[in-house]
Amino acid sequence: MLTGRATAAGTARYGARAAAKLAADYLRPLTHDGVLVSSIGLGSYLGECDEADDIRYADTAHHALATGINLLDTAINYRCQRSERSFGKALSRAVRMETAARDEIIVCTKGGYIPLDGTQPATREEYQEYVKREYIDSGILRADEIVAGGHCLSPAFLADQISRSRANLGIETIDLYYLHNPEQQLDAVDEPELQSRLRSAFELLEQRCAAGEIGGYGCATWNGLRTAPGERGHLSLAMLVQTAREVGGTDHHFQAVQLPVNLALNEAVRTPTQRIDDRELTVLEAASELGVAVVASATLLQAKLASKLPQQMREALPGLTTDAQRAIAFVRGLPVIASALVGMRSAGHVRENLGAARASNSALSA
Q1: Cα separation of the two ends of the chain
Q2: Regarding predicted confidence, which is higher, 319 or 56?
Q3: Please, are residues 149 and 192 in contact by the beta-carbon 8 Å criterion?
Q4: What angle do CA 223, 199, 242 make, to 5 degrees?
């Protein structure tokens, strides 16, 4: 395993190398201890569970680390654990070849969904047999702790998943560990029960921070933070932070949330889905007030925003050459956003997308 974790000094060193070719605001604070993250990050959600995409992801991640991206984002259930393992190969190669040092790289992963291992089962029955054999019979979780056929937040399950992710990634410490779509639990339980389950999960995550297995934690959501209060599936950021404070005190390690932010899904910017006291705020406003970093997912909405953008977007972002760059620059230019995640599986995509950080987008973000 690679020892250590991302540090303020290491990420500042990485930023100094990137400064000559990328925008002055390219690296941004991610955590309260001064760790800096590239404002474009590498995602790893899409792809086949096969060796060809394993190679593409590993090669692309290594190229990204060499050219200005120091944030790798994955999840144990992405591509049947293959995305984590591909990033693990890239990290090992990068450190061995001195492309980047371990303390320069922020590695993020997620737990919550029961992951497959290498391949997808052919039938639902095979999947259920796999879950029973691998997780229930082994005592890692109970059948009544599974929601929606494959989601679990029990402390024992999360402890197991952190251990597996560290092995897949080949690292001693995961820099940022997200609970994956905790709003999924609301398919089966009410909000007070969800808060109780989150409290237990946060207690486990604080323990793993103390043990050095993770550096910090947060929640990666799809609908939860964008859903209005009172609607099914809503997550309160204030509740998440308050729960972390109750569990970990003022020095708790709840550091970031991840949610879709893009030209089409712009609720985080425009819709007041969060409440602090009696005030209605957007996610970005609430995160700023609560001191929580925001990482944007689905920046290109699975390539749907990589082409055919309206002419006014081209006029608003002069100096950019592709619609993918414009869509990324929109998200990167928003206040509070620490990093905009983009799935990439080729060096050409990395080069193109980094072009979004070589020109000013201040006119749009203003």
Answers
A1: 44
A2: 56
A3: no
A4: 75
